[in-house]
Amino acid sequence: MTRRTDLSRIRTTAVVAAAAALALSGCAGGDESDKELTVFAAASLTDTFTELAEKFEKDHPGVKVTTSFGGSSDLVAQIEDGAPADVFASADTKNMDKLGKLATDPQDFASNTLEIATPPGNPAKITGFKDLAGPGAKVVVCAVEVPCGNATAQMEQKTGVDIEPVSEEQSVSDVLAKVSSGDADAGLVYVTDVTAAGDTVTGVEFPESDQVVNTYPISTLDGSDDADLAQEFVDLALAEAGRKVLSDAGFGQP
């Protein structure tokens, strides 16, 4: 009787263990937990892509979207140096083109134009683009290798206005920081940046702004740990839901 009892206990234990292992295996199948997607995006996309990342996580339970924002040229340099990223969204096609085959299938998804930002209330009374070249005007712009800086240089060429900035920054975020703190009378950023900054700056539109339009491309990156998941994020930015988020923030169609 003792031997039969022992055998019964062994069989029962084995069955329970097998069932537990099967249950764990079943839970793991089709689960996206522990997956992470890294998205590099231009600083002007901070608010919109933060919202898109939250939506993507909601639609993909268990997936964590990590975002990194900065000047497009800086982000390109990081990608070229081997920084792990799955998706890149640039504020111009020029910087996307620098990646060559590292960008697997760039697609245009938005556009943007320049606007003048001043400290709240516009104390220097900046009224248009020509005022940025006025005597004593302390103006901050983006460095020329950054999309907003390149757009500024194009605008100067088209209008014949020669701005002598007090500083050149690496992203629109840095320009806004200088302006909102009162360190500059004005700065050139995008329309969407002025909108996102709210009461921290005052926006000054100028009619020449439509002469220079920046087109924003997005692409999955070669070597992504999960190319299919990366493409799904790109698809979200291109889809109606993504376009609404961008439109609400002031971006135009590509």
CATH superfamily of the largest domain: Periplasmic binding protein-like II
Name the structural class: alpha/beta
Total count of domains: 2
What is the CATH topology descriptor of the largest domain? D-Maltodextrin-Binding Protein, domain 2
According to DSSP, the number of beta strands is 10
CATH architecture of the largest domain: 3-Layer(aba) Sandwich
Order of helices and strands: HEHEHEHEEEHEHEHEEHH
- Oligomer category: single chain
**CA-to-CA gap between the ends?**
82 Å
CATH C-level class of the largest domain is Alpha Beta
| Proportion of helical residues | 40-55%
Q: How much of the sequence is in beta strands?
A: 15-25%
Average pLDDT reading = 90
Question: Largest sheet at a glance?
Answer: 5 strands, mixed
Q: Describe the global form.
A: elongated
Which descriptors would you attach to this protein?
alpha/beta; D-Maltodextrin-Binding Protein, domain 2; 2 domains; five-stranded mixed beta sheet; 10 strands; disordered N terminus
Describe this structure in words.
One of its GO terms (cellular component) is plasma membrane. GO terms for molecular function: metal ion binding; molybdate ion binding. InterPro entries: ModA, ModA/WtpA. The chain folds into 2 domains: 110 residues, Periplasmic binding protein-like II (D-Maltodextrin-Binding Protein, domain 2); 98 residues, D-Maltodextrin-Binding Protein, domain 2. 42% of the residues lie in helices and 20% in strands. The strands form 2 sheets. It has a 5-stranded mixed β-sheet with strand order 2-1-3-10-4. The radius of gyration is 25 Å and the shape is elongated.
